[in-house]
Amino acid sequence: MNTVTLTVNGKPASATIEPRTHLADFLRETQNLTGTHIGCEHGVCGACTLLVDGVPTRSCITYAVACQQAEVTTVEGLDNDDIAAELRTAFSKEHGLQCGYCTPGMIVSARDVVLRMDAPSEHDIRIAMSGNLCRCTGYVGIVRAIQGVITARRARGIAAIPDGNRKILGPAGSGHAVPTTNGAEPRARVSSGPADTQARAQAAKPVSRPDADWKPQTTFTQGFTVAHPVDVVWDFFGNIGEVASCLPGASLAGEPVDGHVEGQIRVKVGPIAAEFQGVADVTRDDATRTGTISGSGKDKRSNSATRGLIGYAVRPGDAPGKTKVDVSIGYTLTGMLAQFGRSGLVQDVAGRLIAAFVQNLEAKLAHREQGQGGEAPPVITELDAGSLVSSVVFGRLKQFFASLFGRR
């Protein structure tokens, strides 16, 4: 595994990846930048084109580790770019897009043409854009859009830059290598002992991204009521191990230390069984009876990763002896399991998962109140998210046909 640090759309981005990981997967799976599309994965179709140090680059055949310390700009990073803005308007006007799958790569390559070519003919533009394939438009609208933007910019006195600001020799992203001298330490060396091994292990640790820069992909709220006093429920939430045991498929790897805990949660989605291993930090405020759980985890088998932030508030319920718990959930899911991450389905599945959590919570609290020895075993130990998703889809289809035929 290698730790790669890049500047992506003006912000630092770092992740620990396999050496064979190409730049497109690095951006999509670790940075959630899905505007970079993957098509042929052979550098032919151009759908994955982005900018590395200002140069259009096929990200599906570029190793992420080869771009260490490079500046990468994806289509998301061109929101405020003047040329890209003009191209988006021109593509819309000239009907230069249909399905849109090739459009991110088209915009990046077209921007380079507008930047470099002074007064290209239609033939020149077609040659320059020949590395970007489109299966819908026939290219006529695309060529007209590019030619129109070039004509408009030259008319405003904006000259072309023939070299396109290319100042680094060699493959895109390769201009950041640090040369070694005769007295420099060689890149590969034999371990001198345990201290050397420990030092290299410390250096291999991934650089964490600042929490302030992370925003959840999807956020929603849930709430539930339990038939127990608010003080009892709040005290129970203070025991991380007990709370984890109420969540089907979750377990801790050890005792929490200063609010920091390691553990895993097993999720079954049809034939796919994933086990997310990760860490979480837990905070509580006794004055307001609120808390947060911030964590991240990864399943090695499916190469899926998730990061989430859960906030909860415990307050008296509508009746004596009852407690209302409000929960807000924000998460980001990447990798193979992201195909099950549509917010509507996730909310329905999360609702049923919370219902199972409440059943286990009620059973444990009742066990305590009755003064029985030992810990109460959970009522529900595992949920199959695949069957949940199927039931959700079936329920929605049933509602659709009921409304279609005027039935309830």
The number of distinct helices, counting runs of at least 4 residues, comes to: 10
Q: CATH topology of the largest domain, which one?
A: Alpha-D-Glucose-1,6-Bisphosphate, Chain A, domain 4
CA distance, first residue to last residue? 55 Å
Helix content: 25-40%
Would you report the number of β strands? Answer: 12
- Helix/strand class: alpha+beta
Q: What number of domains? A: 2
Task: Please outline the helices and strands.
Elements: E1 2-8, E2 11-17, H1 23-30, E3 49-52, E4 55-58, E5 71-73, H2 82-93, H3 103-116, H4 122-128, H5 140-155, H6 194-203, E6 218-226, H7 230-237, H8 240-246, E7 250-252, E8 260-269, E9 272-285, E10 290-299, E11 304-316, E12 323-334, H9 343-369, H10 385-404
Parallel strand pairs: 1-5
Antiparallel strand pairs: 1-2, 3-4, 3-5, 6-12, 7-8, 8-9, 9-10, 10-11, 11-12
Helix pairs in contact: 2-3, 2-5, 3-5, 9-10
Would you give an account of this structure?
The chain has 408 residues and is α+β, with helices and mostly antiparallel strands. The protein is built from ten helices and twelve strands. The model is unreliable at 179-210 (pLDDT under 50). A seven-stranded antiparallel β-sheet has the order 6-12-11-10-9-8-7. It has a five-stranded mixed β-sheet with strand order 2-1-5-3-4, covered by helices on one side. The protein starts with a strand and ends with a helix. It folds into two domains: 1-177, Beta-grasp domain (Ubiquitin-like (UB roll)); 215-404, START domain (Alpha-D-Glucose-1,6-Bisphosphate, Chain A, domain 4). Residues 2-78 form the 2Fe-2S ferredoxin-type domain. Pfam families: COXG, Fer2, Fer2_2.
